[in-house]
Amino acid sequence: MKIPKLQIGNITADIPIVQGGMGVRVSLSSLASAVAKEGGIGTISSIGLGDIEAAKQAYERISREALEREIRKAKRASNGNIAVNFMGVLSNVNDLIKTAIREGIKMIVYGAGLPVKLPGLIEDRSINLVPMVSSARVAEFILRTWNKRYERIPDAIILEGPLAGGHLGFSEEQLDQPEKYSLDNLLPEILETIKPYEDRYGKKIPVIAAGGIFDGKDIARMLTLGASGVQIATRFVCTVECDVSQEFKQSYLDAKEEDIVIIKSPVGMPGRAIQNKFLDDLEIKGKLKIKCPYRCLTACKVSEARYCIAQALINSYFGDVDHGLIFCGQNAYRIDRIVTVKELISDLLAELEAA
User: Is 182 exposed, middle or buried (0-12, 13-18, 19+ CB in 10 A)?
Assistant: First the structure.
């Protein structure tokens, strides 16, 4: 298979691979810039970047300054394509988006919420807006709303299937039927949904398939089904350039298929993670004590939350996995070694060509 380039608005990636944005310091400048150097689109996650103690007093400012630093480091390290990922449920999401734009970012990825007002926040049409969706129904709602309110359509859409890691846009009932809601089934539906809008505006809306993409064969299958590219996140955790602790990476290497479970997140969405001591203890205790000076998530009801998800993810980032949450995709158990980003992408492209 000839390896196609990925065109998103005014951005051209030499290879059709977007590195997924993984929150709370998993996708930082080191990883994003390494992917960009290899011709893909590297993504910085805007979530949970600031110093923990300093943010207690000035959460919004500390978060903003931390994102500025990561973007600047990524740009110094690579002149390739860098995107920034945002969660709509962040209390300061609009401030972070404006920060990324001031720093020259040309691709905004928006998930965990409906970006109905996003084009109103970003009037510069040279900045590519890329919503993440889990169904054709949600895509249709975004397309219809943007068309009516702003006479604009997304520059690309990321379709995330039920095998993804972290927070998921599916109900627990839907997650029990992964075949029914597989990318193979969802992708044709979304391609059909976007066609009238492509015709109306006279431009292509690339669909990027995400969730469970593991190897070059998976990439080839998605491209054959009509996707313009893929987003891969989980496989990039076990790379040299990913900044998480060695303990975090070792949890991936040690995981068995049965260790990967669906959890209930304080955010109010199901999530996929590795079963570990933290989750075992949580089942016994039922609820952990929470002191929240941040109010980082609009969807988090502190009085009802069983634990602070931000603190649990930060603990794992620093290596305290016994007191931390470890998000992962369904195929994390298949990873058996730590490689460089260059090696991983080289393997993926060789597998794609062979397919």
Answer: middle
Q: How many residues does the chain have?
A: 355
User: What is the C-alpha separation between 209 and 30, in angstroms, rounded?
Assistant: 24
Q: Is residue 328 part of a domain?
A: no
In whole angstroms, give the CA distance from residue 70 to residue 46.
9
- Pick from 328, 265, 329, 264: nearest CA to 297: 265
What range defines the domain where residue 37 resides?
6-244+337-354
Assess whether 132 and 273 both reside in one domain. Answer: no
End-to-end Cα distance, the chain: 6
Per residue of the chain (355 residues), give pLDDT as tens. 789 999 999 999 999 999 999 999 999 999 999 999 999 999 999 998 988 778 778 888 999 999 999 999 999 999 999 999 999 888 899 999 999 999 999 999 999 889 999 999 998 999 999 999 999 999 999 999 999 999 999 999 999 999 999 999 999 999 999 999 999 999 999 999 999 999 999 999 999 999 999 999 999 999 999 999 999 999 999 999 999 999 999 999 999 999 999 998 887 889 999 999 999 999 999 887 777 655 676 666 666 788 888 889 999 999 999 999 999 999 999 999 999 999 999 999 999 999 8
**What three-state secondary structure class fits 185?**
helix
Q: Which two tokens stand for residue 33?
A: 């810039």
Residue with tokens 């209930």: 264
Determine contact, residues 6/229, Cβ cutoff 8 Å.
yes
Beta-carbon contacts of residue 196 (< 8 Å; ≥ 6 apart): none
How many whole angstroms separate alpha carbon 220 and alpha carbon 211?
15
Give the CATH number for residue 127.
3.20.20.70
Whether 209 and 269 share a structural domain: no
Block residue for tokens 């923990």: 52
For residues 206 and 315, membership in a common domain is answered with no
Cα separation, 223 vs 217, in Å, equals 10
Within 13 Å of residue 329, how many CA atoms lie on the same side as its CB? 25
Question: DSSP assignment, residue 20?
Answer: P
Q: Are residues 129 and 234 in the same domain?
A: yes
Q: What's the CA gap between 34 and 7, in Å, rounded?
A: 19
